[in-house]
Amino acid sequence: MTEVDLHRVASEAPGPDATAGTGITAHLCIAVAAALRTHPLPGIAATDGLVVQTQQPDGRVRAVLLRDLDGHSAESVADMLTRPTASGGRSGFLLRCTPSDPVLTVCDLVPGQSAALSVGPVVRKVVVVGGPQTEGMGVHPVATLALRVRLEGTGVEAAAAFLGAVRTALEQPSAQEA
User: How far apart are CA 162 and CA 61, in angstroms?
Assistant: First the structure.
Protein backbone atom coordinates (compact mmCIF):
# COMPACT_ATOMS: atom_id res chain seq x y z
CA MET A 1 0.00 0.00 0.00
CA THR A 2 1.25 3.49 -0.77
CA GLU A 3 -0.03 7.04 -1.00
CA VAL A 4 0.41 8.88 -4.27
CA ASP A 5 0.38 12.65 -4.82
CA LEU A 6 -1.95 13.27 -7.78
CA HIS A 7 -1.23 17.00 -8.17
CA ARG A 8 0.62 16.61 -11.50
CA VAL A 9 -1.96 14.37 -13.15
CA ALA A 10 -4.90 16.31 -11.72
CA SER A 11 -3.56 19.44 -13.40
CA GLU A 12 -3.37 17.55 -16.73
CA ALA A 13 -6.51 15.43 -16.37
CA PRO A 14 -9.31 15.97 -18.88
CA GLY A 15 -12.72 16.96 -17.62
CA PRO A 16 -14.18 19.59 -15.31
CA ASP A 17 -13.59 17.57 -12.12
CA ALA A 18 -10.11 16.16 -12.62
CA THR A 19 -9.85 14.51 -9.22
CA ALA A 20 -12.88 12.30 -9.78
CA GLY A 21 -14.16 10.24 -12.65
CA THR A 22 -12.21 9.51 -15.79
CA GLY A 23 -9.48 12.18 -15.49
CA ILE A 24 -7.38 10.52 -12.78
CA THR A 25 -8.46 7.04 -13.92
CA ALA A 26 -7.10 7.64 -17.41
CA HIS A 27 -3.69 8.58 -16.00
CA LEU A 28 -3.79 5.56 -13.68
CA CYS A 29 -4.48 3.25 -16.64
CA ILE A 30 -1.49 4.64 -18.54
CA ALA A 31 0.76 4.36 -15.44
CA VAL A 32 -0.30 0.76 -14.76
CA ALA A 33 0.19 -0.29 -18.39
CA ALA A 34 3.68 1.26 -18.38
CA ALA A 35 4.57 -0.38 -15.05
CA LEU A 36 3.45 -3.78 -16.36
CA ARG A 37 5.92 -3.37 -19.24
CA THR A 38 8.87 -2.28 -17.08
CA HIS A 39 8.10 -4.27 -13.91
CA PRO A 40 6.09 -7.30 -15.06
CA LEU A 41 4.18 -9.37 -12.55
CA PRO A 42 4.11 -13.15 -13.08
CA GLY A 43 0.94 -14.38 -14.76
CA ILE A 44 0.25 -11.06 -16.47
CA ALA A 45 1.38 -10.12 -19.95
CA ALA A 46 1.45 -6.40 -20.74
CA THR A 47 -0.59 -7.27 -23.85
CA ASP A 48 -3.41 -8.84 -21.77
CA GLY A 49 -4.86 -5.41 -21.13
CA LEU A 50 -6.46 -4.06 -17.99
CA VAL A 51 -9.93 -4.67 -16.67
CA VAL A 52 -10.82 -1.26 -15.29
CA GLN A 53 -13.73 -0.96 -12.88
CA THR A 54 -15.10 2.55 -12.50
CA GLN A 55 -17.94 3.83 -10.38
CA GLN A 56 -20.78 5.43 -12.29
CA PRO A 57 -22.70 8.50 -10.99
CA ASP A 58 -25.59 6.22 -9.97
CA GLY A 59 -23.24 4.14 -7.79
CA ARG A 60 -23.00 1.11 -10.08
CA VAL A 61 -19.55 -0.21 -10.97
CA ARG A 62 -18.81 -0.66 -14.67
CA ALA A 63 -16.00 -2.84 -16.06
CA VAL A 64 -14.13 -1.96 -19.25
CA LEU A 65 -11.32 -3.96 -20.87
CA LEU A 66 -8.56 -1.71 -22.22
CA ARG A 67 -5.77 -3.01 -24.45
CA ASP A 68 -2.79 -1.49 -26.26
CA LEU A 69 -2.47 1.78 -24.33
CA ASP A 70 1.01 2.55 -25.70
CA GLY A 71 1.09 6.02 -27.19
CA HIS A 72 -2.42 6.96 -26.06
CA SER A 73 -3.00 10.30 -24.37
CA ALA A 74 -5.00 10.64 -21.17
CA GLU A 75 -7.78 12.21 -23.24
CA SER A 76 -8.03 9.19 -25.56
CA VAL A 77 -7.98 6.75 -22.63
CA ALA A 78 -10.70 8.80 -20.90
CA ASP A 79 -12.73 8.49 -24.10
CA MET A 80 -12.22 4.70 -24.12
CA LEU A 81 -13.44 4.52 -20.53
CA THR A 82 -16.70 6.31 -21.37
CA ARG A 83 -17.46 4.72 -24.74
CA PRO A 84 -20.80 2.93 -24.63
CA THR A 85 -19.44 0.15 -26.86
CA ALA A 86 -16.62 -0.70 -24.46
CA SER A 87 -17.20 -3.86 -22.50
CA GLY A 88 -15.71 -5.79 -19.66
CA GLY A 89 -13.52 -8.77 -20.28
CA ARG A 90 -11.04 -11.09 -18.62
CA SER A 91 -7.48 -10.15 -17.86
CA GLY A 92 -4.91 -11.12 -15.30
CA PHE A 93 -4.91 -7.53 -13.98
CA LEU A 94 -7.80 -5.60 -12.39
CA LEU A 95 -7.66 -1.84 -11.76
CA ARG A 96 -10.50 -0.72 -9.47
CA CYS A 97 -10.97 3.06 -9.45
CA THR A 98 -13.79 4.33 -7.30
CA PRO A 99 -12.45 7.67 -6.08
CA SER A 100 -15.82 8.83 -4.83
CA ASP A 101 -16.08 5.91 -2.39
CA PRO A 102 -15.38 7.21 1.13
CA VAL A 103 -13.07 4.27 1.94
CA LEU A 104 -10.50 2.15 0.12
CA THR A 105 -11.85 -1.30 -0.71
CA VAL A 106 -9.08 -3.78 -1.49
CA CYS A 107 -10.14 -6.10 -4.31
CA ASP A 108 -10.32 -9.84 -3.90
CA LEU A 109 -8.63 -11.83 -6.63
CA VAL A 110 -10.90 -14.10 -8.62
CA PRO A 111 -9.77 -17.19 -10.54
CA GLY A 112 -7.69 -16.12 -13.52
CA GLN A 113 -6.54 -12.87 -11.95
CA SER A 114 -2.96 -12.51 -10.79
CA ALA A 115 -3.12 -8.96 -9.44
CA ALA A 116 -5.52 -6.16 -8.56
CA LEU A 117 -4.79 -2.51 -7.83
CA SER A 118 -7.38 -0.65 -5.79
CA VAL A 119 -7.46 3.14 -5.72
CA GLY A 120 -8.92 4.82 -2.67
CA PRO A 121 -10.75 8.10 -2.42
CA VAL A 122 -8.97 11.22 -3.64
CA VAL A 123 -8.56 13.57 -0.68
CA ARG A 124 -6.75 16.87 -0.24
CA LYS A 125 -3.73 16.59 2.09
CA VAL A 126 -0.83 18.74 3.15
CA VAL A 127 2.33 17.48 1.43
CA VAL A 128 5.98 18.55 1.27
CA VAL A 129 6.76 20.15 -2.10
CA GLY A 130 9.93 21.39 -3.78
CA GLY A 131 13.51 20.25 -3.57
CA PRO A 132 16.04 20.29 -0.73
CA GLN A 133 16.81 24.00 -1.17
CA THR A 134 13.21 25.16 -1.79
CA GLU A 135 11.16 22.85 0.42
CA GLY A 136 7.69 24.03 1.38
CA MET A 137 4.15 22.84 2.04
CA GLY A 138 1.23 22.49 -0.33
CA VAL A 139 -2.27 21.04 -0.36
CA HIS A 140 -2.55 18.38 -3.07
CA PRO A 141 -4.99 15.65 -4.11
CA VAL A 142 -3.72 12.33 -2.71
CA ALA A 143 -5.00 8.76 -3.03
CA THR A 144 -4.00 5.44 -1.52
CA LEU A 145 -3.07 2.60 -3.86
CA ALA A 146 -3.37 -0.98 -2.60
CA LEU A 147 -1.90 -3.83 -4.63
CA ARG A 148 -2.99 -7.42 -4.12
CA VAL A 149 -1.03 -10.15 -5.92
CA ARG A 150 -0.89 -13.91 -5.93
CA LEU A 151 2.37 -14.58 -4.16
CA GLU A 152 2.98 -17.91 -5.90
CA GLY A 153 5.67 -16.85 -8.31
CA THR A 154 5.51 -13.15 -7.34
CA GLY A 155 8.06 -11.97 -4.86
CA VAL A 156 7.34 -9.11 -2.51
CA GLU A 157 10.20 -7.21 -4.15
CA ALA A 158 8.57 -7.51 -7.61
CA ALA A 159 5.23 -6.29 -6.26
CA ALA A 160 6.91 -3.36 -4.47
CA ALA A 161 8.87 -2.43 -7.62
CA PHE A 162 5.66 -2.49 -9.68
CA LEU A 163 3.80 -0.29 -7.17
CA GLY A 164 6.77 2.09 -7.03
CA ALA A 165 6.77 2.36 -10.83
CA VAL A 166 3.06 3.27 -10.84
CA ARG A 167 3.63 5.91 -8.16
CA THR A 168 6.64 7.38 -10.00
CA ALA A 169 4.71 7.53 -13.29
CA LEU A 170 1.91 9.47 -11.59
CA GLU A 171 4.09 11.86 -9.56
CA GLN A 172 7.05 12.58 -11.87
CA PRO A 173 6.94 14.25 -15.27
CA SER A 174 7.69 11.90 -18.15
CA ALA A 175 10.86 12.28 -20.23
CA GLN A 176 8.83 14.04 -22.94
CA GLU A 177 7.58 16.64 -20.43
CA ALA A 178 10.93 17.33 -18.76
Answer: 25
